[in-house]
Amino acid sequence: MKMIDIGGTGVLASAVAVGCMRIPAMGEEQLSRYIHAALEVGVNFYDHADIYGGGRSEALFGQVLAQEPGLRDRLILQSKCGIGKNQYDFSKQHILESVDGILSRLHTDHLDFLLMHRPDALMEPEEVGEAFDALESAGKVLHFGVSNFSTRQLELLQSGVRQKLCVNQMQFGLKCTGLIDHALSANTEFPHAADRDGEVLDYCRLKGITLQCWSPFQYGFFEGPFIDNPQFPELNACLEQMGEKYGVTKTAIAAAWVLRHPAKMQVIAGTTNPQRLQEIASGADVELERADWYALYLAAGNQLP
Ligand SMILES: NC(=O)c1ccc[n+]([C@@H]2O[C@H](COP(=O)([O-])OP(=O)(O)OC[C@H]3O[C@@H](n4cnc5c(N)ncnc54)[C@H](OP(=O)(O)O)[C@@H]3O)[C@@H](O)[C@H]2O)c1
């Protein structure tokens, strides 16, 4: 498994990580088997959020950790907060209370990474900074980051926070390529040339911020998987062809496509199927040739000037 130093922290995480949004569909025993199967293929990183399953994702995961002393230390745990009911909330009180809830549900005394889930229009960077200082000095959170942040939002929040923001989690995959489209179409009038995130991919590379890619196998705003989906025949034919060439499945090729980007991104896979996770993990060992990477980008329905 390819490993990534997350945001220059020295924390070495698997390039393929597990997203826990869908795990409430599993039982405790099933999740325990899944975690061990993931460790066997080198996957050691878990992405949570306090809102997944209304807290049930973390609670289920915490039950497994409570049952198996020593398992926590083999895993890197990340969670997110900042989304409240019909609002975003980056107030100090909300962040501190959220983290206490997360730690209690997960049955752990610390998070390796805490991300602010979605930008709060009313955020006060210094107030977030106070919350991060309190969490760091209490040993409750080791490292910090954000999700769905544009370049300016990252800079704004960083201006009030002492700790480096070392992660930005964004949607990216073969059917959601906004992070790269505008740069490829710069100086054209193509619709793809519109910059919707302040060129955040280049900014993250320049600053050594790890991009984590959520819903990498979904199309639209996580509407469903594109693999084996009859709506995308050209893409699936190309995935099939590449799979034959590299000796892996279409799913592995879709993961390899994200990981081929030199930004050293992390794939946050939401599968609840250990066999599928194994396929995705095998994609981390595939180095796509440049021509193949571009062929997949075009087969996904994109254009180059
Ligand atoms: N920061 C944010 O705002 C944000 C937003 C959304 C998600 N996330 C994070 O991203 C993680 C992943 O999101 P996601 O679950 O939408 O991502 P995903 O990995 O793209 O999709 C996984 C879903 O697609 C299904 N699937 C069917 N065929 C598949 C195939 N060939 N390959 C892969 N999956 C296939 C899986 O079913 P099976 O279980 O049967 O394999 C599962 O239901 C979440 O768990 C969460 O941690 C973050």
Residues in helices, as a percent range: 25-40%
* End-to-end separation: 35 Å
The major sheet is characterized as: 8 strands, parallel, barrel
- Uncertain runs: none
Would you identify the CATH architecture? Alpha-Beta Barrel
CATH topology: TIM Barrel
Count of spatially separate domains: 1
The helix/strand order is EEEHEHEEEHEHEHEHHEEEHHEHH
Structural class estimated from helices and strands: alpha/beta
CATH superfamily: NADP-dependent oxidoreductase domain
Shape verdict: globular
CA-atom Rg in angstroms: 19 Å
Number of strands: 14
Identify the CATH class. Answer: Alpha Beta
Which small molecules are bound?
Answer: NADP nicotinamide-adenine-dinucleotide phosphate
Number of helices: 11
Q: How much strand?
A: 15-25%
Mean pLDDT over the full residue set: 97
Order of the strands making up the biggest sheet:
3-4-5-8-9-10-11-14
